[in-house]
Amino acid sequence: MENPKILLLAAGRRYSFVKLLQEHGLDVYSYELDKRCPIHHICETYIGNSHSYPIQIHDINRIIEKNNIQLVLPMNDYWSAHASSVFTKYKDSFTEVVSSESRAAHVCYDKKEFDKVMMASPYSINYPTYRPFFDSIAKPQYGNSSIGLVHIPWYDVLTQYRYRLSKDFVVQRKIDQRVEVSVDAYFNKSSKFIGGVPRTRDRVAGGEVVDSTVIPFGNKEAKDLLYLTEKIGEHIGLKGPTCFQFMKDQSPGYIAEQSEWKLFEINARFGGGCTLTIRSGFDMIQMMINEYIYNKDINNYRDFPYTGLTMKRVFNDTFTVT
Known about the structure:
- This protein is an alpha/beta fold.
- It has two domains: about 5-100, Rossmann fold, CATH 3.40.50; about 180-310, ATP-grasp fold, B domain (D-amino Acid Aminotransferase, Chain A, domain 1, 2-Layer Sandwich), CATH 3.30.470.20.
- It has nine helices and 15 strands.
- The protein has helices at about 15-25, 55-65, 75-85, 100-110, 110-120, 155-165, 220-235, 275-280, 285-290, and strands at about 5-10, 25-30, 45, 70-75, 95, 135-140, 150, 170-175, 180-185, 195-200, 205, 210-215, 240-250, 260-265, 310.
- The strands form four sheets. A five-stranded parallel sheet has the order 3-2-1-4-5, with helices on both faces. Strands 10-9-13-14 form a four-stranded antiparallel sheet. A three-stranded antiparallel sheet has the order 7-6-8, sandwiched between helices.
- It is globular and about 60 Å long.
- It starts with a strand and ends in a 10-residue tail after the last strand.
């Protein structure tokens, strides 16, 4: 019997994640725009020759049909937002797209839309809303990996005002002395929260976590984070694997409102540090396989992840002749 086949969209450097998919018995294919991407050493990789969106869609459809792909898995924010609406012809057929519905995925991709949704939600206190007389950060509407962030000091009122009027940026309150945490979570096809694992972001480079540790589940902070992840994720209507990014202010003399966890971003896909979560025992890959390939209902998760597990990313050099 053949292994199920999965097509990744823009997996690029996710070398360890591809290895995990293969350990789960999946034949992995990937669609990339950079022929030097490291994962081409370990899985069959198709390189797109054009940045034209219609041509990319045409290429991906051909790969799906040629290889009898069963799962399409977006691996960056752009494809997470577009895959569910683009590949509609596969929704009731052999191939499944592992993605939230178009609107929910777009809320996570479009930071201005995310700002509106969070401000109008019952969880607005858990969003780093712009505040006068606080340092601010201006984020590109469709930014990623901390690219294009603009740090604005509290006294530069004109610059803050200019970015707040911009249609291309969203302005949030900057949190300087902070603790950063990611929560990898899984929501089933009915947008029901199945579970999640909070982990520290001990060291970050270029927006990607490098060192991370699973937070003990008995910890009050872990319970608070999982509660917020469940409520906000179900409120937005997320499906499949997700990654929530939280911060908490640890400045001396902060007020009560500042001491709340602040959700500054959601990735509607597998996060960069998800390998730690999966190795800890919260196996989102197996959940995805059970739900999207074998059509099993995923309604709860009983296994208790191994807390205290730490991940340290190391360099694994790859070489490509150009």
